[in-house]
Specification:
The protein is built from 13 helices and no strands. By secondary structure, it is mostly helical.
Length: 292
């Protein structure tokens, strides 16, 4: 039986900001919207945060289960995997993933009842995307499509959806802010997959990093950590306070240098934490700037 600490480690806590940052940014847009019907609806914002968080946890446990039973995680460099390490039985990890998906579905049902039933369709797609990332016979995460999914669901869907459930409109700022948030979320996955290129290639897991190769994957990571600061300039035209997000730029330097300087294996593990911190600080500053 896995310990509580192992279950927490298995939930991949360094990746959890990926789910909460877009909700913060979407709520910042809602706060700053001064049109009729604008403004934050806090209970909806908190429920959206809960949905995003438990979906992320569900994704992580689902990936742990699917990769573990395939043997992909048998020889890992990165943090603990519950099934691959033998700390927990596959059935236990699968049950944890399904429980997280169920919790997200119930909370999403409440949001749909308060706004539009179309949210149920989006939620269903999100859960299916979470499962089939590494689950099923032909997981798309093994077909170099993981980054696209992350950009769509942790960028576009999460930010725009959070805005919609609060003000029930889709202003252009929601779409514009979703792009840099999605890119930073992709940066986390790119760094993770860069570290795992040798083991993924050996196990037949064709991530985008495996397809692009080491050099271009490092360039892709640098793009994901630099373009968000250019996106701020677009948002700053009608929202000058958005420029405060540029204060997060120094945090992008250490992980990007490590990646571009050729760090491999265990040396890339700190990059995940540094990328997570960059995403948190950037997202909070952008949310505050858009709220002001």
């Amino acid at each position: 039986m896995a310990t509580l600490a192992q279950w927490v480690a298995g939930s991949r806590p360094r990746t959890l900001p990926t789910s909460l940052v877009p909700v913060a940014v979407g709520t910042g847009i809602a706060i700053g919207d001064d049109s009729p019907g604008g403004g934050a609806v806090w209970w909806r914002a908190l429920l959206a945060a809960f949905v995003a968080l438990v979906l992320q946890i569900g994704v992580n446990y689902s990936n742990d289960y699917s990769d573990g039973v395939r043997g992909t995680d048998d020889d890992r460099v990165g943090p603990l995997r519950l099934v691959g390490s033998g700390a927990a039985k596959p059935g236990q990890v699968l049950a944890a993933a399904l429980a997280a998906f169920l919790a997200a579905a119930v909370a999403g049902l409440v949001l749909a009842a308060a706004t539009t039933w179309w949210l149920l369709l989006i939620g269903a797609f999100a859960i299916l995307a979470a499962w089939f990332y590494t689950g099923g016979k032909t997981p798309y995460g093994y077909r170099a499509l993981g980054e696209i999914s992350v950009f769509v669901f942790f960028g576009l869907v999460a930010v725009v959806g959070t805005v919609y459930v609060q003000i029930e409109r889709l202003p252009w700022e929601a779409w514009a802010a979703a792009v840099p948030i999605g890119l930073l979320a992709c940066g986390l996955l790119v760094a993770n997959n860069l570290r795992d290129i040798p083991t993924d290639r050996e196990s037949g897991k064709r991530t985008l990093a495996v397809v692009l190769g080491d050099r271009w994957t490092r360039i892709l990571y640098a793009v994901c950590t630099s373009l968000p600061f250019m996106a701020v300039l677009v948002l700053a035209a009608p929202h000058p306070w958005a420029l405060i997000a540029l204060l997060a730029a120094p945090l992008s330097v250490p992980p990007t240098q490590k990646v571009l300087n050729g760090a491999t294996g265990p040396a890339l593990i700190p990059v995940l934490g540094e990328t997570g911190r960059l995403q948190i600080v950037y997202g909070v500053l952008l949310a505050v700037g858009l709220a002001l």
